[in-house]
Amino acid sequence: MASISWFCCVRMLPTPTLCTFTPSACYKGLSPPITLELEHHQNTPSLLSSNQEGCAVNRRQLILHTAVAAIAAAATVPNALALNDVSEDVRIYTDDENKFKIEIPQEWQVGTGDPNGFKSVTAFYPKEASNSNVSVVITGLGPDFTKMESFGKVDEFAQTLVSGLDRSWRRPPGVAAKLIDSKSSNGIYYIDYTLQNPGESRRYLYSAIGMASNGWYNRLYTVTGQFVEEETDKYASKIQKAVASFSFT
């Protein structure tokens, strides 16, 4: 049975709730385990309690903490030096330190946030105000986590993630999470799901989740692209392609 022996000593402290690119659409009640200095405000579902700390962080909580951080990720610090043009439509962002690359829309901005317990957070987002973005969140793992199957098979992993986010059963109902699809390819788990707060737009999320070592310990990479229903025509294809393009270098 795998344990998070390295990660369990990390105290996850509550931080201020993050808002999205549209301040009027803020989700309430979440104190995510990550703080970002935002240029655009970021939207975060009320998915977790504000106190989850110490060795109480288990496999399930690590999945959820990472998912929430990915949902919450936004960016402020432009970093054009890491970008290489590929075509008129896309360019490649390469992170030499964290050993990954991803294709993003040509006109999108890039930035990083204060990890606050995570190893790295990078976000990609349109120049115009939007509820759509792609983020890469990197989390340190204990030595017992050597491959994605350490979290269970992809279907089990997906069910753990989505059921942990779902609060539709509460009275009054909270955010509703629904799993659309899950699959595994070349050691990466791909999970598609939706989130919707009562009375608000449905949010579509595409995640690619993989594991790699930096030579000292393994790290979990969670790539999440998200867009709201009314922005489907404008951003769905771009976000799906960006997430699918993620690879280790």
UniProtKB/TrEMBL annotation:
Keywords: Signal
A molecular-function term among this protein's GO annotations: calcium ion binding
GO CC term (a single one): extrinsic component of membrane
InterPro entries: Mog1/PsbP_a/b/a-sand, PsbP_C
Signal peptide: 1-19
One example of a Gene Ontology biological process annotation: photosynthesis
Every PsbP C-terminal domain range: 89-248
Membrane-crossing residue ranges in chain numbering: none
Protein name from the UniProt record: PsbP C-terminal domain-containing protein
Naturally occurring in which organism (per UniProt): Canavalia gladiata
UniProt lineage: Eukaryota, Viridiplantae, Streptophyta, Embryophyta, Tracheophyta
